[in-house]
Amino acid sequence: MSAVFQLLADSGFAQLSPGQAVMIAVGLVLVILSISRDLEPLLLIPLGFGIVLANIPLSGLLDPAPGGIFYYLFQYTILNNFAPIFLFFGVGAMTDLGPLLARPSLFLISALAQAGQFLVLLLALVLGFGLKQAAAIGIIAGANGPVTVFMATHLAPELLGPIVVTAYLYMALVHLIQPPIMRLLTTAEERKIAMAQLRQVSRQERIGFILAVTVLACLLLPVGTPLFAFFMAGNLLRESGRTDRLAGAAANEITNLFILCLVFGLSYTLAADQFLHRQTLLILGLGLLGFASATAFGILMAKVLNYFSRGQVNPLIGAAGLAAVPHSPRVVQIEGRKANPDNFLIMHAMGPNLGAIIASSVVACVIYSLLAH
Fold it and tell me: In angstroms, rounded to a whole number, what is the distance separating the alpha carbons of residues 90 and 93?
């Protein structure tokens, strides 16, 4: 009988704290919701499962010793930026920049939407976060996952878990966050506007854009070279027409591998004693405000473009000024179809959506460059 009691005393149940129980419940809810509601399953299913494992007492997964796999993934794929950089490489290989190049003026939507980052930064300062912490939290509003990981790792590694979880959680929930704001800031007539078909963009234009942006962005913001260069490298593999096998590997096998490295490595920061504190609640609130404000700024810019184009731009596409690819364009398409069943806005929405990938990266690197000194 004493052996049974000793076994129970040495089990995880005996060591389980209330905080760990809460985090295990959170992880299970994420897994169940992601499966049942199809919420960003490629990220949230392994992330939720990782949260569960990170909060199992005595598992050794977090130990900085042989067998602490979460520790090693965190050290060697996140802290050294391998995971976010190679994820950006994969995003580049999956990205068609044609809708942005076909109508470059839509980049103005992407640019103004980044004002949400600065609004969140200022509010975070008011709430007592340090400057670097506030800057890292502000990046959430850009809805750019790899850039959020990159910036949080450099500026606020102590808040990495809450910041990244908040960013990816709200990206999965844009279909709930954005529609009320879209309907509030647009009229019924504006939502019915049908936009002219985009022109075809030649391969030469695409490749020229890739090379020009790579050189100019890397020279202007050298600290952002890992992000810009790998995103554009992935896109070059896609657009060159000569490297389909490499582009396919970047978009599939490499991306899938580093998604797993990211979420399981991130789980190292999601133990109860690191995650359950007042700052996490503030970050969740600021992140929600960031997504909402970026959506609003994008729609307002789209309304300005609609005015100057004499009714040729549907303001709904302003909601795609976040880099949540392809979630925001899908929301725009759904809302546009509700107002006008013949509307087809998704390709137009992809323009500011893809522009937001570039704009959010530029803003992040400018902030990082300033704070690094």
Answer: 5
